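Review this today:
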Amino acid sequence: MKTTRGDASALLALLLSTLPHVSRAQSSCTGPPRIPGTPGTPGIPGSDGQPGTPGAKGEQGPPGLAGDHGELGEKGDPGIPGYPGKVGPKGPSGPQGAPGSPGAPGPKGESGDYKATQKVAFSALRTINTPIRRDQAIRFDNAITNMNRNYEPRSSKFTCQVPGLYYFTYHASSRGNLCVNLVRGREQVQKVVTFCDYVHSTFQVTTGGVVLKLEKGEMVYLQATDKNSLLGIEGANSIFSGFLLFPDVDV
């Protein structure tokens, strides 16, 4: 037979209400000692009570065992670049590379001065020993060198054909006083310098030189004075020389 929860509650209330009467009857009656009855069957469990208040937090338990490694996650975004590191030591030099290709031709240079190739020079020896008159051109009749043939041995005069700077010099042997003029010009000549040396009855060598800026057609030669003991003999030579230093570039 199936008993519901409502019937059980009614039965329990009835039993509880009869207890005072039983207790009074037992206390007024005297009889033999009571024999314990057979224990009844366990009652039906009561309903769940209300939840209790939360207890205090317990102490932390010991660490658990390490779990299995999870799967590898996706690659993250690149981080911010760090600061540059220190410069490392210089490495060894690499092998020499192959030669590069030739460069492009450079620009054309300016035209050169053709006159820079002009070569003008002379050196003439005096081989005669005749008396020389004052203001006469001193004869140097034997042309040792005569490039461009601007020197005329018969007149002993140099005539400029290439304008520019020239250097003229002489080495004269004499026996006695000697003075010579170096002159320049065209139809009218002018004295440039005079070289003198004075001795008595003794051999000497006199020398002198000058740089001149000449125009085309100008002549240069050595001119005698009243002191003209110039010699032209073997062992006592006299020489007149000149040559072009720099030609004019604007002519």
Q: What stands out?
A: Confidence is low (pLDDT under 50) at residues 22-27.
